[in-house]
Amino acid sequence: MVTDPIADYLTRIRNAQMANHRIVEIPASNLKKRITEILYDKGYILKYKFEDDNKQGVIKIALKYDASTKLPVIQGLERISRPGLRTYAKPDEFKRVRNGLGISIVSTSKGVMTDKEAKAQNVGGEVLCSIF
Q1: Which of 25, 56, 97, 115 ranks highest by number of CB atoms within 10 Å?
Q2: How many whole angstroms separate alpha carbon 126 and alpha carbon 55?
Q3: 31-79: per-residue pLDDT in tens?
Q4: What one-character DSSP code corresponds to residue 89?
Q5: How far apart are CA 8 and CA 5, in angstroms?
């Protein structure tokens, strides 16, 4: 059993990129599915597929690499709020990630979204992670 599933999700992606894997498989949950959809919408991953295996399910993520340099598009993944120290922010307190080039993923009362979307909807919440 994993005590911090979001940290496990980010670590699996980070490790797969360091090993130059094209596809990574991650145990599914609704929160992880939503984070995967955000990563796809923002162009950080190539594609994804949710598979049901009559248990928990699996998320298959095709990682995206730069064609010329062969470097991964995701340069960094950082867990902000963790089980031992939850981090919450109001809409005007969201910190910019890499001077606006990255995103933070926030769990709000209106669902999981990016920091920019949360600021536009004027809702705060728990800052889960930042990606750049």
Answers
A1: 115
A2: 28
A3: 999 999 999 999 999 999 999 988 899 999 999 999 999 999 999 999 9
A4: E
A5: 5
pTM for this structure?
0.94
Ranges of beta strands (E only) in 4-94 are: 23-27, 45-51, 58-63, 77-79, 88-89
Q: Is the separation of the CB atoms in 17 and 45 below 8 Å?
A: no
The dihedral sign for the CA sequence 20, 50, 109, 119: positive
Residue position matching structure tokens 């889960």: 128
Counting every residue, how long is the chain?
132
Pair 45, 62: CB distance under 8 Å: yes
Name the strand (E) or helix (H) holding 39: helix 30-41
Instruction: Please give the Cα distance from 112 to 130 (Å, whole number).
Output: 13
The Cα 13–Cα 105 span in angstroms is 16
Whether 6 and 129 have beta carbons less than 8 Å apart is answered as: yes
Measure the CA–CA gap between 47 and 60, rounded to whole angstroms: 8
